[in-house]
Amino acid sequence: MMKLSLLYILMCLMMLFPTVTHGQVRTLNILYTGGVVGELEPCGCSPKTDFGGVARRAGYIAEHRKGLSPYILIDAGNFLGKDTPQGRLKAEAMLKALSIMKYDVVAVSKNEKEFPYNFLSALLKKYKLPVISDMTKNRQSVSIRRDGIEVNLSTDPKNFQEGKLNILLSDMPIAEVKGLEKWDVIILSSGETLEEPLIPPHPPLIKGGKGGLHGTVIVAGYPKGERLGILTLQIDNKGRLLNFKHRWHVLGRDIKEDINIRKILKDYDAMVAKLLKDDYKPPVEVSYLGVSKCSECHQLFVENWMKTRHASAWATLERAGKANDPECIKCHTIGFGEKGGFYSTKTTPMLAGVQCEACHGPGRDHLSDFSRPMQPVTESVCLECHTKITSPDFNYPVYLEKIRHK
Ligand code: HEC
Ligand code: HEC
Ligand code: HEC
Ligand code: HEC
User: Fold this and answer.
1) pLDDT, tens only, 100-137
2) Ligand 1 pocket test target in 39, 45, 46 with most atoms within 8 Å of CB
3) Rounded to an integer, what distance in angstroms lies between the CA atom of residue 89 and that of residue 273?
4) Most buried residue among 4, 123, 220, 398 by CB atoms closer than 10 A?
């Protein structure tokens, strides 16, 4: 009895201090993103491309926090998209999300620098994000101590520090960073995809030797944050890298979203909706007529079109809560962004959905002279909306068959 409980206590101790019993080997997880380019969440147009998004990323980390610890959460840069009015709203939502996820360090790179400095720095301050960058106004490096491991994180390839675990965050292309020899880990945000970590052959990889694992492990943030990178490092007590494992966590529909982040996304949607002005006046000479006009003379075509999914494309957006998002509207309506095209539900409701004129072109000229041919419908018309991301299964003859309306 006595012996058993002693053994039990010993086992518990071993579980508590695995690092001690395994000869000073420590494990540290590097959770990383990079090159997210403002992707707050995927459009959901196809289950085959429905990956990523900050709500799932946060949900996954929150649910597995214990198992992932100790970890450092890093964004290697290019987390923002374009500097447009909507892009700025996105930027704020993105930074809010990163701060809720408690990113340990975020690298400011090319995309972020496209935004005015005052705008960006105000947001970074507001959400208290630990930032590094190669701009003189920012810190280039930061030191983090996690579970007894000293980590130097830097955007400066020259700022390597002896005696620490060294991680470089960069948006340089893979070809350029291959030559950097001293760094233990390099995380890229250039948008290039590395399915597996890259270990350049110089200097040769010597595992477990006196100096640990000589060589650099290069990884790259999965484009648009569709997956979370998890690099598990084994480190000796001098901070030297002994070994590593790598895996992706695919952020699919199965992941439970973080409710706080979902709230941020809802607020973002509400702000985006305000970009569409209620007092917008459609031009008097409308070039798009809308399906109700076409039905006056092509009733059979309209009835058949009603049976296709194009007719419910607007309802789809409403269901997704995205009927006021210009980035979605452009493919789920007709003529968005053009004079006389769809503008908003309030101002141009008759042009919502993928109507006749999405393929046949604006109908105004047709109405004044039926003998004038409409825009010829070719595959390239479809491809403006059926892209690799929105419609990965697109196949022209197959899809054409499904929308026949004669
Ligand atoms: C580049 C054009 C394009 C953009 C932009 C776009 N969509 Fe789509 N969407 C499509 C196409 C095309 C399909 C049909 C894909 C298929 O089935 O092959 C689709 C399908 C969908 C579906 C699936 C409908 C169903 O019942 O399966 C949803 C939901 C959706 N889109 C929502 C959105 C949202 C939300 C946005 C904005 C964040 C958006 N879309 C932006 C083109 C687009
Ligand atoms: C203005 C954008 C746009 C254009 C142009 C467009 N589509 Fe679509 N298409 C969509 C959207 C959006 C959906 C999804 C509607 C939904 O389900 O809500 C869709 C859905 C479809 C579907 C249903 C997919 C399925 O799996 O059942 C077919 C088929 C299709 N489109 C064929 C075509 C073909 C063929 C063309 C060209 C001749 C074309 N589309 C042009 C936007 C467009
Ligand atoms: C997704 C694209 C798309 C949409 C939306 C669409 N059409 Fe078409 N339409 C086509 C294509 C492609 C053809 C040629 C089909 C064929 O070759 O059989 C066609 C053919 C036609 C024709 C016959 C032309 C001929 O040569 O006889 C008429 C009329 C027509 N469409 C009217 C409409 C009307 C009205 C609507 C709206 C209710 C509509 N279409 C919606 C793509 C579209
Ligand atoms: C007032 C009646 C009328 C209305 C409204 C009308 N059409 Fe037509 N359309 C015709 C007639 C008549 C023809 C046949 C012309 C011919 O064969 O020379 C025709 C032919 C077509 C054709 C086949 C010829 C071609 O050039 O491709 C398409 C496609 C078409 N219409 C689409 C539309 C669409 C889309 C709308 C709505 C925006 C529309 N039409 C509205 C009367 C109408």
Assistant:
1) 999 999 999 999 999 999 999 999 999 999 999 998 88
2) 45
3) 11
4) 220
